């Protein structure tokens, strides 16, 4: 994660908000025939050695709702559950991607959050990525799905597995109280918030973290962008520099992540510095969870940072069927 902080130094906080349109790489397929797709997948699963390419070709080029229709037709046709059949036919990283695609974005996110706090020890990096980079709208849906899947409240599980200011920030975000964007620019409130952030941090000895949490978790994204610009008129440091000076550890990572840029940072640093297992886990999570949301935008930002496309980078650092499924979800080269 130290490398993540280094790369963050190259960027400004860049909040991606609820008001922005989606930029998916996987969209609803035209001329869709779920019965035909189900028949092809059944044949692919039964083929000696398994026809992975057909499975990849179909499931990475259909939306989640279409994949569910295929699964329904598959069960009607074979009297077997398609997800169970895919589990039996696939393995390793390819299996992780394909089974991830059989979940909705919210189901996938909820499962990843659950995995990050399940058992001994907490996977703080995953928890930070999932909670701090999701919009209020996404978090509301994740909470609903989390309770549906695990019969528990997300807030209670997060509270039970974290502590201190880090817990306070995550819980504030999970409550999804962020204001909706408005066409009316409130310059007085922008100035008040900018001054409050400065007075709660750089201006005083010790940081009033509660004030930072309130402003960063409750204000709309366009408002925060203007607050951070205004902040420079009060502080000798920009907001990003101030965060790094005032707080450390998981809290620092969380505040820095509140810009929906961790996807790009993670992809850049993990691909180039991590071992195979850690690399595949993060790349799989980002590509699967964002392919129907904003992976096209992530591709664009990744190339700006890296001077090399995500498609090219995946080609260089992966191989086999895992490479093929990621490239298909990536949706093309830049």
TrEMBL record:
The keyword Cytoplasm appears for this protein: no
Major subcellular site: secreted
Keyword tags: Annexin, Basement membrane, Calcium, Calcium/phospholipid-binding, Extracellular matrix, Phosphoprotein, Repeat, Secreted
Listed InterPro entries: Annexin, Annexin_repeat, Annexin_repeat_CS, Annexin_sf, ANX2
Signal peptide: none
GO annotations of cellular component type: basement membrane; cytoplasm; nucleus; plasma membrane; vesicle membrane
Entry's localization field: Secreted, Extracellular space, Extracellular matrix, Basement membrane
GO molecular function, one term: phospholipase inhibitor activity
Similarity remark: Belongs to the annexin family.
Domain comment (free text): A pair of annexin repeats may form one binding site for calcium and phospholipid.
Name of the protein this chain belongs to: Annexin
Taxonomic source organism: Oncorhynchus tshawytscha
